[in-house]
Design brief:
It is a single chain. This protein has about 200 residues and is an alpha/beta fold. The protein is about 35% helix and about 25% strand. The chain is built from seven helices and eight strands; from the N terminus they run ααβαβαββαββαββα. It has helices spanning about 10-20, 30-45, 65-70, 85-95, 125-140, 165-175, 195-200, and strands at about 55-60, 80-85, 100, 115-120, 140-150, 160, 175-180, 190-195. Strands 1, 2, 3, 4, 5, 6, 7 and 8 form an eight-stranded mixed sheet that branches. The radius of gyration is 16 Å and the shape is globular. About 35% of the residues are buried.
Length: about 200
């Protein structure tokens, strides 16, 4: 039995887009500064051979993560953005000049990549949805999946909150190596799940 979604994601994001336009607030971040703190931490976990890698940004929004990577002088060799919201996809295509696809991560076929990234796209999902999201992105990656989550007890009716120890248990269940970074923002943590060599061949 599927769990009931926390929110209507389309209405949630379209209302922010209407109110704030193509900005960090338009994808429900508090500010550009907090958004870019999360980007910096995500990118710190990427492999050193990033210039040779294909990266998929799951829930890419307006393509802000790719634009941040370009500004920092560290874009990947190949970037694909995926988002379920068509207005965001159109903006991301124009901003990045990259391949951006309309895609429901939970239902559609996912492109193969070396590493999947996700910043914020699981913040309104149920536990069932977020675990499926993680497992599908991990399966479509050759090396691993780097993602952030909101930190806290699972008591919110709107947001999807996790404790780092819950993600450690999930890593053990999925038999992956993991890294968890905390302390950069009080309400957030970032995780990398890496496939083990015997699993990737």
């Amino acid at each position: 039995m599927r769990s009931v979604p926390k929110v209507d994601n389309e209405a949630f994001y379209l209302s922010a887009l209407k109110a704030h336009g193509e900005t960090a607030q338009g994808v429900h971040w508090n500010s550009v500064e907090s958004q870019e703190v999360r980007f910096r931490v995500l990118c710190s976990l990427l492999p050193e051979d990033l210039p040779d890698l294909r990266i998929v940004d799951a829930g890419c929004g307006f393509g802000d993560l790719y634009c941040y990577m370009v500004r920092e002088g560290a874009p990947p060799a190949d970037y694909i953005g995926l988002d379920v919201m068509e207005p965001m996809v159109a903006t991301a295509r124009a901003r990045t000049g990259c391949e951006i696809r309309v895609c429901n991560i939970l239902e559609d076929t996912l492109p193969e990549a070396d590493v999947y990234l996700c910043s914020g796209a699981m913040n309104n999902m149920t536990r069932e949805e977020s675990q499926a999201f993680i497992e599908r992105c991990l399966a479509a990656s050759r090396r691993g999946f780097i993602f952030n989550l909101l930190k806290g007890w699972n008591t919110s009716t709107l947001y999807n909150l996790y404790l780092p120890r819950e993600i450690r248990r999930l890593a053990q269940t999925l038999a992956v190596d993991y890294q968890i970074l905390e302390g950069y923002l009080a309400e957030d943590f970032t995780t990398a799940f890496w496939k083990r060599k015997e699993a990737t061949g």
